[in-house]
Amino acid sequence: MLGGLRNRVTIQALTTSPTGGGTFSETWTTASTVWASVNSKASETYGQEKEQQDNKYSIKMRKRTLTNANRLIYDGQIMHIESVTDETERGKMITVVGRVELDN
After folding, report:
1. How confident is the model at residue 31 (pLDDT cuts 50, 70, 90)?
2. Cα 48 to Cα 52: distance, rounded to the nearest angstrom
3. Which of 50, 77, 81 is nearest to 68 (CA)?
4. What 8-state DSSP symbol labels residue 104?
5. Ramachandran assignment for 20, one of left (phi > 0), alpha (psi -120 to 50 degrees), beta (any other)
6. Whole-angstrom Cα distance, residue 7 to residue 61?
7. Which residue range forms the structural domain that includes residue 60?
8. What's the pLDDT band for 90 if we cut at 50, 70, 90?
9. Of 45, 42, 44, which Cα lies nearest the Cα of 56?
10. CB 3.0–4.6 Å: which of 19, 53, 68, 104 could bond 41 by disulfide?
11. How far apart are CA 90 and CA 26, in angstroms?
12. Which of 50-59's residues contact partners 24+ apart within 8 Å by CB, and which partners?
C-alpha cells in the first residue's frame, strides 16, 4: 500500500488570533506536506449519484491526527475534511474524505 502513495498533499491547520476589541482573525498555516493516494469519489460511482460526488475525494495516507479544523491542499484545490477513518484498523493508514468547494 505504501508504494501507492504518489500524490503530495499539504495539511493545513486553522489558527485564530485576537485582533483586539473582542474579535479574532483566522488564518490557515501549513502543518505538513505528506505523500498520499488521491482518488475522485466520482470515479467510484455512476449516473446521477456521480454528479453529487464530483467534488469529493478519497485520500489515503499514513496515520496522523486530523479533524475538521484541518484542511487539505491537493493540486491547487482546497479540500475540507468530511471524515477520517482507519479502515485497516491496524493504526498505520487512514482514509480521509475531502470535499472541494465548487464555484456557483
Report:
1. very high
2. 7
3. 81
4. -
5. left
6. 10
7. 2-100
8. confident
9. 42
10. 53
11. 35
12. 54/102, 55/99, 55/100, 55/101, 55/102, 56/82, 56/97, 56/98, 56/99, 56/100, 57/97, 57/98, 57/99, 57/100, 58/95, 58/96, 58/97, 59/9, 59/95, 59/96, 59/97, 59/98
Q: How many domains does the chain have?
A: 1
Residue the block writes with cell 496522523: 64
pTM of the model: 0.79
> Among 98, 38, 37, 41, which residue's Cα sits nearest to residue 70?
98
What's 51's domain CATH number? 2.40.10.270
23 CB burial (10 A radius; 0-12, 13-18, 19+): exposed
- How many CA atoms within 13 Å lie on the side-chain side of 97? 11
d(CA 97, CA 84): 7
More confident site: 1 or 94: 94
Beta strands in the chain (DSSP E): 7-20, 23-40, 56-62, 70-74, 77-85, 93-100
